Amino acid sequence: MTVIIGERFELNTEPEYILGSGGMGTVYLGVDTQTGQQVAIKQLLGSVVRDRPETLERFAREAEALRLLNHPNIVKVLATINNDPDHYIVMEYVPGGNLRDYLDEHGALPLRRTLEIALDVADALTRAHRLRITHRDLKPANILLAQDGTPRLTDFGVAHLADKPDVTRTGAVVGTVNYLSPEALNGLPFDTRTDVWAFGVMMYEMLVGQRPFEGDNVTARVTAILTHPVPDLTKLRHDVPPNVFGLIRQMLEKDPDRRINSVRRVGAEVENMLRNLDSATEVMEPPVLANPGQPAKPDSRFNTPTNMNIPAFALEPENAVGNVQNQSATRNITLDDISSTSNTDNERITAPQTSQEIVTTPQRRVPVWAWAVMAVLAMAVVGLGLVASGVLTPAETVEVDAAVLPAPSGDTLRVLIADIQPLSGASERDITRMIMNDLEQRYEIGNTHTKLDIVRYPESITSQDDAVTIANREKAAVVVWGTYDNNRVQLDVQAGSVALFPTIHFPRGIIDRIANVRLELQDPQTESIAPYVAGVVGILHSADGNLAEWARMIAIIPTDVTSPTVVRSSAANTHCYFQQYLASPDTATSCIDSAISAEPGNAILYWLRAMARNRDYLIEFVDERMLPAQLNTLRDAAAQDFETAKRLGPDNWVMPLFSHLDGSTVGNRKSNLVIVNDVNEIETAVSLRSDDWTPLYIRAELAYKQGDIDLAREYIDRALESEPDVTLPYTSALLLALRQGDLAAVHDYIETIVMDFPDYTVSARMFDVLIGVTIPESLIPGIFSNLVIGQYSAASNIAQAFNQGNSSPGLFGGDETLILLTGISQCGQGNYEQANLAFTNVINFDRTFAFARLMRASAAREVGDRSRFDSDLESLRNSSQADILAPYIDAVNTGELTCANVFDLNVLGRYHPDEVVPDA
């Protein structure tokens, strides 16, 4: 039987069109009637939804994940269609079968082919993990192969989206048993490292033709995963170099804390291996022991920040198998829903487990320091031999002041962790690794928007002067170094190279006195230096004049940490300010008061106090907890601090120019608007920091408040040229484009926000740092994200929660747009009368808002209000935006474009100028 779904896609359900089937439904080969291209149509049967309602959420989750993941090595989703009782995802058709079938037919793959597939899969997973999506079911059956052999990652049905609740039951294990990580089998918390494990299993299988952990039944295979060491594949395939096996073994560490912590690093290693294969021979040298991992080449697809913290892989003695005992929490595993005989990779576990307890610990490893000692001794022997033989004379054995590490890439800032040295009599512990683990988890794995690159420096540092010298050489913004004994760890966290901040014009001593801090830790596994690292970077950004990055550093400071003790540091009060800024502005102000008392001539300290006072003022203004006289006193104190900072600081320091944020009222609602008394000051900031989007953004806001939307859009467009990595400027650009009726630009901005910034909470926290109260611009990305995927109720809930609170209008008319989006979400739920009321409220507020009138016309069409429909369309055809809105007016007139589907990117994209195909 052949049917047309979604008014576009031809679906034939005859058996010869079936591409695959499973418990949730069937995948058919279909045709896009508009393009003639073949497509894959995944059908979720209504009977499945009826019997297992949670499958519908999984189906929607897969569609959402694929929509977010726009990547050449990930299957593209073309449309989602709901024809009750059946549901469909339409995807690109990949005609080459899947990797499972290919392996079954051909067996083990050549080394180069394995690495090529692994490189593309790593690239795809890097994209997914950057968007905080964990696949959770990585296996050969979910790797499709194009006709040219290029892999495509698919099947995100059980993926974990970080900002979405899980659809699995509590205690459930999700995935396919042969590729599940030990922590997943044990029901422990997981993260993207569970994908790294499955990736390692798959790489091993491609090279050997079988998985590393086998058994006659599921129980045996689970036991093998949890207890058996990784078989040495170099004994099974002699053409596989040791470093390839070393990489796979690191990916298959049973303890996730010892496993490679980033698939991006896996990709960088694989890419380097392929580069080595392209050399004169295909023999790859084994890795240098204790080498902190080869970074990606400058032209690498993985040249985003790479952790240089531990060896990407390390050789171990063959007998270092380790004793398999458990030192962590365990869970019971049941195998009642799993076939005990099947040995395929299709044994996906989706139910709680209840059988024998199986426990694990990581394998023992030779400590990194032991390899380092051996390497140093070997080098010393060789060096002595060369000198003794006359090849080198002692005078020629001079030190070369060259960088030990490759230069950092992108706009990230390097945090250098030197080897923490044991004092006399101290037991050997890898304190450096403990510090690295904590910082990586907080600033790279758990939060991908910090712009901090945590890197291990393979030598010790013994003084602040040495730290500065090394920071300048290695291009590090922060340096951490120190010592330990059996009772404590003492660390210095200090500012690194100020040369990385080209607009710092303060003497270095002023920065060092308020940034550098000495800390004492009793337990480095539970205490964290992360807040102090962010504080040092925040001070550097303060001196540099980068308001947005200063706000970012405060926004990322973790609050769930046990802080170490500060030892004799003049910077203690400054760090107290940074750590208390969000939770308690009063405490932050008291801390900075103490800092100013100790150093009354430091301009940076006055600016920091001005920001805390100004934020406190805005909060009190909105909450109405202070008398007007008290509010005025607080505002005047902030203004005086801004002026003092301006007087004491360098002439070309822009931070005091971002001043005079004030409170005002609009109607019966409160507003915290950026009001600068002298526009010329912001123009000066723009000229001084033309590379920074922040002053351009504030200048655009001023133009908008003056009623010049076109000038505001011009400044916003200039701000976007620097490619900001937060949602705020894109959101404001979107709001201005809506005002101008530029829906093609709206489409592009929505796509950027949803695709590139799925975690919009970072921008919201940065707003909190700057002004302390919620404004619409901080919520709109979340609303758009829900509207794009059809989650109208969720979008409506966000908007209503804001409107019910004592919050403020936005900087670019965000309040009107919030009401507009509320109306669109009501359309999506079929509540057209409520939608009409929302659109009317927007029009009454601003009668020139043509897009709101277009949406009201659509709502009127749905309820049969022909008079309102005709009147609004006629008004639009006579408006100043008639030309730019013409295709959308026609589409609303025919009903093709509605107030419910207007933010469906597939629908909106039909009218995008780039999508228009000229007549032949």
**Strand content of the residues, in percent?**
5-15%
Provide the low-confidence segments as ranges.
Answer: 161-173, 280-299, 301-401, 662-677, 915-920
The first-level CATH class name of the largest domain? Mainly Alpha
CATH fold group of the largest domain: Transferase(Phosphotransferase), domain 1
Helix content: 40-55%
Based on the structure given, which CATH architecture of the largest domain is correct? Answer: Orthogonal Bundle
How many discrete domains? 5
Your description of this structure?
This protein is an alpha+beta fold. 46% of the residues lie in helices and 11% in strands. The chain has 5 domains: 2-92, Phosphorylase Kinase, domain 1; 99-349, Transferase(Phosphotransferase) domain 1 (Transferase(Phosphotransferase), domain 1), CATH 1.10.510.10; 369-398; 413-569, Rossmann fold, CATH 3.40.50; 679-915, Serine Threonine Protein Phosphatase 5, Tetratricopeptide repeat (Alpha Horseshoe). The strands form 6 sheets. Strands 1, 2, 3, 4, 5, 6 and 7 form a 7-stranded antiparallel sheet that branches. Strands 14, 15, 16, 17, 18, 19 and 20 form a 7-stranded mixed sheet that branches. Strands 8-11 form a two-stranded antiparallel sheet. Helix 18 (603-623) runs antiparallel to helix 19 (628-648), helix 27 runs antiparallel to helix 28 (814-828) and helix 30 (850-863) packs antiparallel against helix 31.
